[in-house]
Structure formats: C-alpha cells, structure tokens
Design the sequence.
C-alpha cells in the first residue's frame, strides 16, 4: 500500500514538474512585444486594426504597442533610432534611406495597401463626366512635396496631360493635418484629400469627390510594414508571426462585409461618426485599396519608382531584391487560410 502511495505521489510530482517546465518555456516564447509606428491614423489601414482588434496578433504570441508617428520622415527617424521595431509607412521612405547611404537598409516585408488613398475633391459639384483638363488654370491645394500622395497626384495629372507646376496654381505650403481645414475655409478650387476628410467635406456640403487618385495611378506598394535588416535578421521568427497575423486580417477583410469591418475598427476612430467610417471602408474596399496578401510585386515596385521618377524625387532606381523581402509574406500566404 505504501509502495502504491509512493508511486502515485511520485507520478504527481513528475507531472507537476513537467507542467511547470512547459509553462516556464512557454512564458518566454508566448508573448513578444512588437512596437509599431504608423505614419498616420487612417481607415486606409483597416486590416492593421482588424489584426489587433480581432486578436490575430495575440494568437501569434505578439503584444502590439501601436503609436502614430505622424509623417513619413518622423516615422523613419523613429525606426532608424530604435524607437519602434516596425514601421507602417510608404515604400518610398525605404528608398530615401538607401539613397542617403544607410549601412542598415530598411526592408519592406509585408504590404498593407496597394493603391494611393487620396481623392480629388472639387468645391462645386460636377455636371456630366469629369474632364481632367478642367483643372487647368485652377487653384489646386496639393499635398507635401516628396510625399507619396503628392507624387501619385502629379503622376495622375501628367498622365492626363497636365503639368501640375505650369498648368495649375499649385499650393503646397499647407501642413498635411491642416489641408482639409484650409479647403473648408475657402483655400483652393480643388484639393487632394485622404479619407475620412474627403467624406466629411462631402457630408458638410463643402466639397464633392469627383475622382480617385488611387484608381488613376494604378497599383503600388503604397503602405508597407518594414523594419531594419538587422532587426529582421535577429527576429525572423517574430517577423513571420507578425506577417501571419496581418495575412489573417487581410483574409478576413476580403470576406467580411463593410458593416463587419466598420464594427471591428471603430474603437480606433471613436471621434469619427460611424456612418463616415462605413462610407470610407466601402470606398476603399470597392476600389481594391486593401492588399489581399503581403506580397510586394516587382511590377508594382517599378510603378512606384516611375511615380517617384516623374516627380523628380528619385536619384537612381532602387534594386527590388535589396529592399524587398517576400519570404515572410509567401509563407504567411501559404500557411494562413
């Protein structure tokens, strides 16, 4: 009897030890903090918020610390200085870093949006089909020089035979955050706006969306998750888990309704009317702005550089194979269903 009791006690002790050992190992591996710096808070980035809100990052054992690092320059500076681990910003910023001769290149590893996210807004409603030539001679409130929105805008205008610096009265000295207010206050006859500002201006009756720069400029690696090569080399497992979570969110967004997506991301836009958020989600979803996967296509990469070249912002073309690493997106696309 004593022998049986001893055997039972020993078995229980061994089981407890194994459990504690397993928990000890898991506690070190289960939760990894990843600091993301997004260039702005935007409904355009809906899949990112879905991945957080639906717990897809958490499922991968990642604890996400999300901050908004307003502006591409600030976002990239924060990434390079080690203030964040991953940046969500336009791919052009990684090219600018390379042009400055960085010894630790910034690598694009997971695409989130695949078109420009801005719209052409007119002060007056249009009658009939919109003719781009009607912009000639008009006061146009544009985006910041060198930024992707302005470059995509200029690319579109040139495609329609308009030289933005000769054919328009172009205003580019208004800060990004103040552009909607400036237009609403009477500056400009036309303006290039992100959402939800374009929809808000429409709802207030102060402007009318008449064209999409996203549709006109074609597919681009417009907003991408990127990290320093040194970080990726040391944390490849974390980057893979991160990519898996984003892919799951991308899959979900593709099949979810506009209402479902809106409900999932509303906590990130508490100061925005729900109907506005819904309208913006529908607009971006309808025009295919949300990437279906994280793959950064070489043709789209070349289109991005065509846009930059046209704007005079590209010293020399950047090698796709040097600044893009699709291995994590490829594995996520295969593994996550």
Sequence:
């Amino acid at each position: 009897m004593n022998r049986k009791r001893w055997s039972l006690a020993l078995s229980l002790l061994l089981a407890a030890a194994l459990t504690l050992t397993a928990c000890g190992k898991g506690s070190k591996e289960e939760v990894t903090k990843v600091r993301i710096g997004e260039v702005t808070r935007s409904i355009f980035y809906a899949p990112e918020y879905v991945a957080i809100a639906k717990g897809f990052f958490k499922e991968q054992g990642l604890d996400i610390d999300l901050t908004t690092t307003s502006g591409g320059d600030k976002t990239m500076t924060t990434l390079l200085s080690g203030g964040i681990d991953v940046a969500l910003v336009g791919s052009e910023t990684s090219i600018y870093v390379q042009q400055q001769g960085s010894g630790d290149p910034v690598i694009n590893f997971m695409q989130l949006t695949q078109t420009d996210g801005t719209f052409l807004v007119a002060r007056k409603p249009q009658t009939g089909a919109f003719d781009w030539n009607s912009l000639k001679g008009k006061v146009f409130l544009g985006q910041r020089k060198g930024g992707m929105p302005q470059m995509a805008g200029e690319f579109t205008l040139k495609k329609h035979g308009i030289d933005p610096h000769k054919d328009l009265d172009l205003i580019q000295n208004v800060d990004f955050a103040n552009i909607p207010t400036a237009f609403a206050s009477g500056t400009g006859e036309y303006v290039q706006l992100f959402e939800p500002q374009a929809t808000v201006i429409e709802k207030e009756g102060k402007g009318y969306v008449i064209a999409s720069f996203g549709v006109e400029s074609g597919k681009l690696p417009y907003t991408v998750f990127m990290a320093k090569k040194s970080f990726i080399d040391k944390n490849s497992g974390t980057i893979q888990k991160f990519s898996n979570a984003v892919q799951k969110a991308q899959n979900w967004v593709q099949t979810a309704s506009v209402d479902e997506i809106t409900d999932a991301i509303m906590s990130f836009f508490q100061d925005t009317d729900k109907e506005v958020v819904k309208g913006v989600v529908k607009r971006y979803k309808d025009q295919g702005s949300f990437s279906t996967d994280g793959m950064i296509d070489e043709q789209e990469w070349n289109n991005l550089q065509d846009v930059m070249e046209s704007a005079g912002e590209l010293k020399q073309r950047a090698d796709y194979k040097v600044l893009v690493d699709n291995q994590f997106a490829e594995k996520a696309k295969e593994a996550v269903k």
